[in-house]
Amino acid sequence: MKTLVTTILMTLLMSSASSAQNVSSEQKCLALNIYYEARGSDIADQAAVSDVVLNRVKDPRYPNTVCGVIYQGNYDADGNIMRNQCQFSWYCDGKSDVPQDPVSWLNADALASQILNSGDFVGITQGSTHYHADYIPSPSWAITMTPVAKIGGHYFYRWE
């Protein structure tokens, strides 16, 4: 019963967040990234993860939209994302991308709105375009970048 109630609530929240409240697709994309990359973290970590997305939008090496950055990856001939070949692991891990925790989803959506509409927290990572969770050993790409900070559960890096 709890699963059914959660599913119904999430369906209502997702549909109202994307239509009735005039929420942009960019906000929804950013909210999904906050939700899947940092929902268990504090607001500073969630904002920092979002700042990396915005820094990539401004960087000519990456797509120039929030959704473009988040959904960047390798696609097969049929247009399907290839498993484990994308920029943000939640998007190409083969699992559903529908949030299951209504409170965390509402918090992520509210933060995405705040960041996109007021510019709050923009710059928190000082230009970082990459991060990784602190429980992951340093990835190979990290040695080519400048470490910037550890915020919450993530390490942040930028190009120099």
Task: Please tell me about this protein's structure.
- It contains 5 helices and 5 strands, in the order H-H-H-H-E-E-H-E-E-E.
- By secondary structure, it is α+β, with helices and mostly antiparallel strands.
- The protein has one domain: Cell wall hydrolase SleB, domain 1 (Arc Repressor Mutant, subunit A, Orthogonal Bundle), CATH 1.10.10.2520.
- It is globular and about 35 Å long.
- The termini are far apart.
- Mean pLDDT is 88; it is low at 4-9 and 15-22.
Relevant terms:
single chain; 160 residues; Arc Repressor Mutant, subunit A; three-stranded antiparallel β-sheet; 44% helix
The gist of it:
This protein has helices spanning 2-20, 25-38, 43-58, 66-70, 102-118; strands at 73-75, 81-86, 130-133, 146-151, 154-158. It starts with a helix and ends with a strand.
CATH class division: Mainly Alpha
- List the secondary-structure elements in sequence, H or E: HHHHEEHEEE
CATH architecture: Orthogonal Bundle
Q: Can you tell me the number of structural domains?
A: 1
Oligomer: single chain
Total beta-strand segments = 5
CATH topology category name: Arc Repressor Mutant, subunit A
Percentage of residues in helical conformation: 40-55%
**Uncertain runs with pLDDT below 50, 5 residues or more?**
4-9, 15-22
Approximately how much beta-strand content do the residues carry?
Answer: 15-25%
What's the alpha carbon Rg, rounded to whole Å?
16 Å
**Mean pLDDT rating:** 88
- Major sheet: arrangement of strands: 3-5-4
Number of helices: 5
Shape: globular
Helix and strand content put the structural class at alpha+beta
Largest sheet: 3 strands, antiparallel
CATH superfamily: Cell wall hydrolase SleB, domain 1
Cα distance spanning the termini: 53 Å
